[in-house]
Task: structure prediction
Amino acid sequence: MTETADFIALLERFSDTVRRQDVAAFTQLFTPDAYYDDVFYGRHEGRAAIGTMLEKFFNDGADFEWEMHEPVAANGIGYTHWDFSFTSRKAPNDGKRVLMTGASRFRLTDGQITAYNEWCYQASCLVGIGVPAAALEKSLLRQDAAFRAAADPIKHRL
Result:
């Protein structure tokens, strides 16, 4: 198999465990010291923390679907873009279908995930579930501050 074919098989297991809400199987896709950096829930380090984050996520939603598109992998890094949807269980959006579109980077070692980062069109997702404008602005300002903190301030003239 090629590295991309192995990555595609991993993504199928990744998406399937989320669809089935199988926290134990999901966490086993990661190395013991891996991290998962979620656009809404933040960074979680280690299998136990990743499992706790996923349990919270499953409490907040239902009927998950995670469709991966055009995955590629080389030299221990995999990328894919995706469409992710679920039904919200959180007020005031309880029962509303949420759609997110984004991309992920997976760092891989021996068929397991050592690091996961994701990005998405966060504003459209928040607007789609009816987040008030003031809360949306607060979220986007926090996202902007994080991006600026991570970028080279000299190179980008920040």
